[in-house]
Specification:
By secondary structure, the chain is mainly beta. Helix content is 10%, strand content 35%.
Length: 124
């Protein structure tokens, strides 16, 4: 039986990896495990970043949240809306963006919520 050298094995692995193609459409999905006090606890999103925006798919629509408490097995996500309708078992996806708040002349003197969204009925 012929023995494979480390160099041959390394080259074989390099060739196999070079032949792989990234699959588009793959997404990380987590599951809400519990909800309380405006925080959804999510399992399964190990690669979420601090303040990354998440989409929670509920029975009544999509609720956004942002990752705040990053632990090894679970994320504490602050809900950016009502927790009504968010329940254990709901799917959660990463949006791939960090929470941001708009600024500029168009918001100067306006009534806005904590996310910088106008509440005074004027244009955004």
């Amino acid at each position: 039986m012929a023995e494979t050298t480390v160099t041959e094995l390394s080259e074989s692995l390099r060739q196999a990896i070079a032949g792989l193609e990234a699959s588009e459409g793959l997404e990380q999905v987590g599951i809400v495990t519990r909800v309380g006090d405006g925080v959804a606890w999510v399992h399964g999103l190990r690669h979420a970043g601090y303040s990354e925006v998440l989409e929670i798919e509920t029975k009544t629509g999509v609720v956004e949240a942002f990752a705040l408490n990053l632990m090894e097995d679970e994320i504490g996500a602050v809900l950016l809306g009502s927790d009504q309708g968010v329940a254990a078992g709901d799917r959660v996806k990463l949006k791939g963006e960090v929470l941001s708040v708009p600024v500029g002349e168009e918001l100067l003197g306006r009534v806005v919520n904590p996310l910088g969204e106008p509440l005074d009925g004027g244009p955004a």
